[in-house]
Amino acid sequence: MRRFLDRLYDGAGVAAAVAMAGICVLMLAQAFGREAGILIRGAEDIVAWLCAACAFLALGHTFRNGDLVRVGVFLDRLPERARWIAELVALTVSAVFTAYMLWAVTRFVYDSYEFKEVAQGLIRVPIWIPQLSLVIGIAILFIALLDELVTVLRKRKPSYQVAEEARAAAGDFSEKL
């Protein structure tokens, strides 16, 4: 199960990176196309959808690697038992909020599907297709939160803490900037 979850998080991170590379390619193609007198129709629509995919698909991966904003300064000063309780509370509240967000976004995308809503830009596609990246990304974040909640309940260090400690031991303080 651990291998599957790690591959899920890494795969989502790779998908987010591919979306970011797609944004770069489209933006460069538009810039060079403009100089050559070539119009790339619908590039703005695709870039907007890729931006959403990039942001949401990366959530689970960045959370597990300690790259999302957390209040570690507060937690680091707590005694071990109080830190454990604070981690449990924070992960539980985050999981509940993310579950609600997943439900709401899934309902929103399903409504787009039911009403056969079409994108308003130059590219006429059913809008639920690019919106799926939101649902998938939030679902992966929810799974990551539950994964860390189980880890903390077992009185183990969460992966984001392990990742931060590994970076600190290696002398990498770049995320502190």
Describe this structure in words.
The chain is mostly helical and 177 residues long. It has one domain (2-176). 75% of the residues lie in helices and 0% in strands. It is globular and about 65 Å long.
Major sheet: none
Order of secondary-structure elements? HHHHHHH
Distance between the termini: 35 Å
Class from helix and strand fractions: mainly alpha
Number of domains: 1
Spans of at least 5 consecutive residues whose pLDDT stays below 50 are none
**What best-fitting shape do the alpha-carbon axes yield?**
globular
Using the CA coordinates, give the radius of gyration.
Answer: 20 Å
Rounded mean pLDDT is: 89
In total, the number of strands is: 0
What oligomeric state best describes the polypeptide chains here? single chain
Estimate percent helicity: over 70%
> Total number of helical segments?
7
